[in-house]
Design brief:
single chain; about 475 residues; Aldehyde Dehydrogenase, Chain A, domain 1; Aldehyde Dehydrogenase, Chain A, domain 2; 2 domains; six-stranded mixed β-sheet; binds nicotinamide-adenine-dinucleotide
Length: about 475
């Protein structure tokens, strides 16, 4: 049994009220850890430590030295990847293959990418009217709170913490209450690599309570949030009172469009990885499959065949490619949407039920495909955040684009076609922050990621994210003699 405390000012502390939270392994339903459940006094202490570090030791380090420490965090993550990947799998239920070979290396890469930026964040000189030297300074914002969901606990922490630290901010991390263990492991590494006290703090506790304390806290300058669109709206409302900087990476209902001239084998593979990677608990999951009517029957037959071969298994087995749904509540939510889809008249062509991997335990779900979904049905409109695909027909490219854009969300989209003109035309018309052509779910720290419409605003990763962790100061010097 793992017992973890709060990480404040480079010290491990019990929560002020002495309360703890249990962490459950969704593949075994066992309690694997307890973590501290923070109170207002703990949030205050973390923010005070972050503030003192921001104006003190962290500000005094050179940008290059800061970058070196951020680089080391990435390096240590890679060195401890086996151990940290195991934690990620145990609290989230994702296959160890994904944790060990995709998520943890991507988190490490994110730290190392931004480490390189630390000493390249610079201002400019401006040719103004009159006899003045005018230049800009690009400065950090201050204390950044990173509020992270449970689907990619360490990676989404890295997307926020790495650019924040590289730009000279200090951070308070609030992981999701279901998956706090890898953010706490990152705190271990912060101590090992020698981050000054207060630069990185981790406070655990229920989102509704601790998250709200963060939102209302006058000592926090910026919130970087990933999570549900409704929570994002609450954060935006709450932050208005203290006018915090915010970036919101929210939900999605991303369309994956298969045109009639697509390489159908590749598109079938893309449709399945698009929705079933990460158990569909991926904000950019291709959860709406739009298929040209002329190829629909053949395409869906192949898709159903491939889906039925995908069987969930023990997430700790290196051969498993489909793990456990992250929590009991999430499994219930997914099953509710399956019922709604049936009631509304969609045709179930694969999956549809809870799965048993032979242990009689764990929140496993069969990968599920519904055909003949209409754009008005609930599963075509609401984010399920699970392994459920809704297949919708279209008659021509214009109808495909219209249906793709018929959503409050705009996080990602894809188009499958052999026609280069059509590919770029469709990409230009899709209202989404990321468009994939003949591929799906590809990411790189150098490429920006974020939403259009109610999928949020701001970008994570790439040089664009740095804009959200810095502010610009204009300095005027009178040169009149
Ligand atoms: P959630 O909104 O319930 O929780 C996210 C985080 O916010 C957690 O740390 C939670 O404890 C905290 N929180 C909850 N209530 C809060 C409040 N009132 N004030 C402040 N913080 C609060 O989301 P979730 O269920 O953990 O994650 C799933 C959602 O995240 C999905 O909608 C998914 O699409 C989205 N997501 C988006 C992206 C993206 O980049 N756009 C990436 C991953 C996940």
């Amino acid at each position: 049994m793992i017992n973890r405390k709060l990480f404040i000012n480079n010290e491990w502390r019990d929560a002020a009220g002495g309360k703890t939270l249990n962490v459950v392994n969704p593949a075994t339903e066992e309690i694997i850890a307890t973590v501290a459940s923070a109170e207002q006094a703990d949030v205050d202490a973390a923010v005070a430590a972050a503030r003192a570090a921001f104006t003190g030791p962290w500000a005094k380090l050179s940008a290059r030295e800061r970058g070196r420490l951020v680089w080391k965090l990435g390096e240590r993550l890679l060195e401890k990847a086996d151990e940290i990947a195991a934690l990620e799998t145990q609290h989230n239920g994702k296959p160890i293959f994904e944790s060990r070979h995709i998520e943890i290396p991507a988190a490490a890469e994110c730290f190392q990418y931004y480490a390189g930026w630390a000493d390249k964040i610079q201002g400019e000189t401006i040719p103004v009217k009159g006899n003045y030297l005018t230049y800009t300074l690009r400065e950090p914002i201050g204390v950044v709170a990173a509020i992270v969901p449970w689907n990619f606990p360490l990676l989404l922490t890295a997307w926020k913490v790495a650019p924040a630290l590289a730009a000279g901010n200090t951070v308070v991390i609030k992981p999701a209450s279901q998956t706090p263990l890898t953010a706490l492991a990152l705190a271990d590494l912060a101590l090992e690599v020698g981050l000054p006290p207060g630069v990185l703090n981790v406070i655990t506790g229920p989102g509704s309570k601790v998250g709200q304390m963060i939102v209302e806290h006058p000592g926090i300058d910026k919130i970087a949030f990933t999570g549900d669109t409704s929570t994002g709206k609450q954060i935006m409302r709450g932050s208005a009172e203290t006018l915090k900087h915010i970036t919101l990476e929210l939900g999605g209902k991303s369309p994956n469009i298969v045109l009639a001239d697509a390489d159908l084998e590749a598109a079938v593979r893309g449709a399945t990885t698009g929705i079933f990677y990460g158990k569909g608990e991926v904000c950019a999951a291709g959860s709406r499959l739009l298929v040209d009517t002329s190829i629909k029957d053949a395409f869906l037959e192949k898709l159903a065949e491939r889906t039925k071969k995908m069987v969930p298994g023990d997430p700790m087995n290196p051969k498993t490619r489909l793990g456990a749904i992250a929590s009991k509540g999430q499994l219930e939510r997914v099953l509710r949407y399956v019922d709604i889809a049936k009631q509304e008249g969609a045709d179930l062509i694969a999956g549809g039920s809870r799965a048993d991997i032979g242990t009689g335990k764990g929140y496993f779900m069969q990968p599920t495909v519904f055909a003949n979904v209409t754009p008005q049905m609930t599963i075509a409109r609401e984010e399920i955040f699970g392994p459920v695909l809704a297949a919708i027909d279209f008659a021509d490219v214009e109808e495909a684009i219209a249906r793709a854009n018929d959503s409050i969300y705009g996080l990602a989209a894809a188009v499958w076609t052999r026609d280069i003109k059509k590919a770029h035309y469709v990409a230009s018309r899709l209202q989404a922050g990321t468009v994939w052509i003949n591929t799906y779910n590809i990411y790189d720290t150098a490429a920006p990621f974020g939403g259009y419409k109610q999928s949020g605003f701001g970008r994570e990763m790439s040089m664009h994210a740095l804009e959200h962790y810095t502010q610009v100061k204009s300095v005027w010097v009178d040169l009149n003699m």
